[in-house]
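Record 1 of the preview.
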Amino acid sequence: MIKNVLFNMDGTLLPMDQDEFTNVYMNILAQTFSEHGYEPEKLCGAIWDGFKQMVMNQSHKTNETVFYESFRQIYGAETDILKPLFDQFYQNEFQQVKQVCGFDKKAADSVNKLKEMGMNVVIATLPAFPEEAIYSRIRWAGLNPDDFMYITTYENSTRCKPNPQYYSEIADKLQLIPSECIMVGNNVDEDMIAESIGMNVFLIPDCLINERGKDISVYQQGNFEDLVSYIKKENCRS
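->
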């Protein structure tokens, strides 16, 4: 029986072209910080280095800690000045990135229907962003952070997709049985990997990311209405 539904955010609940989102986000960030005297190329390089360190994180440190440790290697003590500037950026200028994101009312409707069915719903998005940025994107999708029992952010996670341990960490923290979970996403490598720890998976291919050209016919897939129907069917069969 499926009791817990884990949703990816970008490209799933929130439609977007990932490359366009990244480019606009980085350009706005670079412009904002250049006004504080920071050279864009150096800053963006430091951010990408920090991102790579989070993806490779195998420690007990949070991704946030790993990111700023990487940042400190480039900016030293000045990192203590940069951190509050990042906080301000995500509260303010980052909101402009919404312009390149789409909106799918059926995505929000599916979350509400699943909750009405008694499902626990979780945001299992790449935890390489702070809470402020992730909560903003949830609102852009027509939802509220309070709609979810748990949301992964870089403050509360020690792993990143596509590491299967990312999903194990969620299951352990929430005391979930993997076979009673279904991971819903659009990224074949990052989201469908949840299957490797025993979770069910469901592919929403509207904003499909399949960098290695895998055969996606092996996955349950469809739109948000299909997802709700599939869960109902599986639970009636149990």
